[in-house]
Every structure is written in C-alpha cells, then in structure tokens.
C-alpha cells in the first residue's frame, strides 16, 4: 500500500459532514448527527452505543478506518 502524503490543512466541518452522509447512505453507519458545538454523534448499529467524535478529523479517521476494514475483508477480484 502506498502511504498518502500528509494533509496540508485540517479537515473542515463540511468535509466531515459529507463523509458522514456517505457512510450513513452506504449503511456503514446507522446514524451520524452533527452537533452545533462541532462534535458529531455516531452509531454503528441500531442497538449500539452512540459515540461522540470531537472534531472533523475524528470523522475522517473513522471513515478511513471503515474504508480500510471494508477493503481488507473483501475478496480480491482483480
């Protein structure tokens, strides 16, 4: 795997919201709610705990973790 270069700027709230929407739409998260204070609340499963994510970078880190897990567990088709 080729490592990605470091980001030149911090993730924005808009970027975090977009990723959260994609994760919910793809049913990789049950729910994601952006709070007025900038935090996000996420839930993986209907009966699962609601977890706070304190910053947009935390949402992007969660998206990256989910992507990595999804890609590493699917069978190789190439």
Question: Summarize this, please?
Answer:
The protein is α+β, with helices and mostly antiparallel strands and 78 residues long. It contains two helices and three strands, in the order H-E-E-E-H.
Describe this structure in words.
The model has no long low-confidence stretch (mean pLDDT 89). The chain has two helices and three strands; from the N terminus they run H-E-E-E-H. It is flat, with a radius of gyration of 14 Å. A hairpin with a 5-residue loop joins strand 1 and strand 2. The chain has 78 residues and is an alpha+beta fold.
Name the features:
2 helices; alpha+beta; 78 residues; three-stranded antiparallel sheet
pLDDT under 50 segments (min length 5)?
none
- The number of helical elements comes to 2
The total of beta strands comes to 3
Instruction: Name the strands of the widest sheet in spatial order.
Output: 1-2-3
Which assembly state applies to the chains in this document? single chain
Report the C-alpha radius of gyration, rounded: 14 Å
- SSE topology string: HEEEH
Estimate what percentage of residues fall within beta strands.
15-25%
> What integer is the average pLDDT?
89
Q: How much helicity do the residues have?
A: 25-40%
Principal-axis shape equals: flat
* C-alpha end-to-end distance: 15 Å
Q: Which structural class do you get from the secondary structure elements? A: alpha+beta
Question: Quick one: biggest sheet?
Answer: 3 strands, antiparallel
């Amino acid at each position: 795997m080729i490592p990605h270069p470091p980001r030149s700027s911090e993730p924005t709230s808009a970027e975090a919201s977009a990723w959260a929407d994609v994760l919910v739409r793809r049913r990789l998260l049950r729910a994601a709610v952006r709070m007025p204070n900038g935090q996000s609340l996420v839930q993986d499963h209907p009966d699962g705990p609601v977890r706070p994510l304190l910053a947009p970078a935390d949402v992007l880190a969660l998206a990256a973790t989910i992507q990595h897990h999804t890609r590493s567990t699917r069978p190789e088709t190439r």
